[in-house]
From TrEMBL:
CDD domains: SLC5sbd_PutP
Species this chain originates from: Moraxella caviae
Name this protein carries in UniProt: Sodium/proline symporter
Annotated transmembrane regions: 6-28, 44-64, 70-94, 126-144, 164-187, 194-222, 228-251, 271-298, 318-351, 371-389, 401-420, 427-445, 457-480
MF terms (GO), sorted A to Z: L-proline transmembrane transporter activity; proline:sodium symporter activity; sodium ion binding
Catalyses which reaction(s): L-proline(in) + Na(+)(in) = L-proline(out) + Na(+)(out)
Subcellular location: Cell inner membrane; Cell membrane
Role summary: Catalyzes the sodium-dependent uptake of extracellular L-proline.
Chief location category: membrane
The encoding gene: putP
Classification via Pfam families: SSF
Amino acid sequence: MNGVAFGVWISLAIYFIGMIAIGVYAYYKQKNDVEGYMLGGRNLSPAVAALSAGASDMSGWLLLGLPGYMYASGIVSLWIAGGLTLGAFANYLLVAPRLRVYTEVANNAITLPDFFANRFDDRSHMLRIMSAVVVIVFFTVYTAASLVGGGKLFESSLNMSYDIGLWVTAGVVVAYTLFGGFLAVSLTDFVQGVIMLVAMLLVPIVAFSDVGGLSAGVAVASSVNPELFNIMSGVTVMGAISLAAWGLGYFGQPHIIVRFMAIRSVKDVPVACGIGMGWMILSLIGALMVGLSGVAYIKNHNMELADPETIFLVFSQLLFHPLISGFLLAAILAAIMSTISSQLLVVSSSLTRDVYKLFLDKEASEARQVLVGRISVVAVALVAIIMASDSNSSVLKMVSHAWAGFGAAFGPLVLFSLMWKRMNRHGALAGMIVGALTVIVWVYGGIEIGGQPANDAIYSILPGFAFSAIATVVVSLMTAPPSREITEKFEMMERGLKG
């Protein structure tokens, strides 16, 4: 092993040991009950809640995908960044405080399907079953997609086999998630969020310094591609709206909004919002600057870049000492692993609460549910590894479809359930089904708009979200209003917000 590789591995080893140590700490810190294992005892500080939500959200897309999009397409990428920023802010404003209060009012709901069932007093269990199926299926695919990213990182940057990278990534994540549960996931996400932010600020500063500063870099980039600073380059008005519509997905992402259920108090939400939005804006700006500086750097050094999404990796290998390179690779792994751990825990929680306890052991003790949750973490990870075993797996498009599916199926459902007292169980079920089916038909139904596939013309989350919202309202108004007991719980939630 040469000195460069040794330095990189030293940094990565420190990172891996640190993540596992946090898992061990969380194991001894948390209570061995369902609320402790799956929600950290609802005691997350604002900073931990905010950064863990951000880190679990962004994944490798922040360090690889967005810089690559900026490098290839220019500031048209601001449509996505702006849409996500607005979506995340609206999520903190509309969903976070209400969900924190309402999940306790609704019989102390632990999972999102749990909340839906309790919110609408769904004794048929249809809401819980349908939402649990959506969570389990889509998040298993999500986890597989993230593992593919980890495997490819080891393969491309460390000259290791893809399979070894897959197992190392999964092994470390499973280790701290298995024992430390939600608290470990949130604390590691906090550390990973800090690592990601430092990396996104450090890399563009050093890269722009290499090309003569910001002004010189912008001038070179403009000479390479005059359309780089045209915000409508290559997109129509509807195309720009579709890019910005990614922000709608936030309202329906279980691995993000579960942090709102776990925050220490509703009074902490504004602080968490400030921290979370500050982290997000700085990280997005850094990612865009990585792509922009990359255009100038590649031009000045007469290099060729086959894959724009590798620009962050190129910088990490060429501009920094091996120990710092290892830190930057750890930042990518942090982005990937923070998402995997959150997804694993959401799926295992749903398998435990919405499948095992509901159908197999209604009287399961707290300790048994925690045990089943830990077994589920391992089981889901193994399934995801099998799904990700082909290094050529085309899962990235499936991830974008899953984001749209969650956003359309759960987004209007979450918003209306928290803000509209008249909504009932029939409207909730109709909205969920219509939203999910619209996305599936829009993507796979062979529909064309203007001679191109419908999803290429208009991102599926737009029609999915709209039709889901319409179905929710229409069906709720056409059927009987909710019972007085349900209405009283809604009013309790509103009073809790004021108190």
